[in-house]
Amino acid sequence: GPAETERHGMTDPLGIVSIGAHPADVFDQSGGTMAHHSARGDYVACVVLTHGARVHDKVISDSMFHREEVPGGDELTSLMAERSEVKAEEVRKAGRILGFEDVHFFGADDAVLLVNEEIVKRLGRLLREICPDVVLTHYPKEEDALTNPHAIAGQIALHAMRVAGSVDPEDTNPPVSVARTFFFGSGAASLRRSVWDSDGGYYNDVFVDITDVVDKKLAALDCLVSQGYGGAYARKRIETNDGAFGTAAGVAYAEGFIASRGETHYLLPVSDYSMQAAQSSDHERMARYSYRIPVD
């Protein structure tokens, strides 16, 4: 039973799906964690809800912003489709670097991402098909939780998990229940700076040490050229975001998550990291999280 599993350690492969609003999100928020689970032999997949070609594309959001006139409807639509495929190939390449190939593109328009029945049911059907044990996605109250596409993506994922747990006349797959949901961590490299930040009431309570795969994560982010991640930004993001999570976790680089709920254990959950920290001096602990990965 579950108690026996906990006493002897979990060895069965897990199914993990990371759901992001934009093409880069699953990589910058959970890329290292996905690499760990891929290497362990777990099933890893990602879902990209929007095509990202309207507001997160170098060609469209940059060059079009400085034009006196944007191309007409058909021309712009064609260009967006072309750029969407460029971004999709970047995502596939980044996924392969981290050890997974199962990528699902929903192609929603990123100008106005809304919680609607169509996208919720579609994601629910995909979850029934994949049967994941773990879902990673955006915190559903990020920033204003009203117009922020990350927050909306998290809300879509929550609705979809509820839908996936019930029967669907249009789907022959049986209901599926996700064991654990972790939201992408918040605030590692940002300051509270808006009225929406005052809501709070949550904190990052799960950290994954990604120091050993941060070079792979960097290579994956370097693939996302059209979203502006390649080069300097990929390095700055890893140092400021994963470095800040790492400092909080007592390691060089980490990804932070917010657990959706408490978890039941047969034994008290005391990690190897906690034991190591307890047996280390102050300077030994500082050296552990001060270490910087040399990257080209």
Strand order, biggest sheet? 3-2-1-4-5-7-6
Largest sheet: 7 strands, mixed
| Radius of gyration from CA coordinates | 20 Å
Which strand-content bin applies to the residues?
5-15%
- The SS-based structural class is alpha/beta
Q: What is the typical, i.e. mean, pLDDT?
A: 88
Which range best describes the helical content: under 10%, 10-25%, 25-40%, 40-55%, 55-70% or over 70%? Answer: 40-55%
Q: Spell out the helices and strands N to C.
A: HEHEHHEHEHEEHHEHH
Instruction: Give unreliable regions as ranges.
Output: none
Number of strands: 7
* Count of separate DSSP helical elements: 10
- Oligomeric state, counting identical vs distinct chains: single chain
- How far apart lie the N and C ends? 48 Å
Per the principal axes of the C-alpha atoms, what is the gross shape? Answer: globular
Could you characterize the architecture of this molecule?
It contains ten helices and seven strands. A seven-stranded mixed beta sheet has the order 3-2-1-4-5-7-6, sandwiched between helices. Helices cover 44% and strands 14% of the residues. Helix 4 runs antiparallel to helix 7 (214-223) and helix 5 crosses helix 6 (149-164). The model has no long low-confidence stretch (mean pLDDT 88). Strand 4, helix 6 (149-164) and strand 5 (180-184) form a beta-alpha-beta unit. The chain has 296 residues and is of the alpha/beta class.
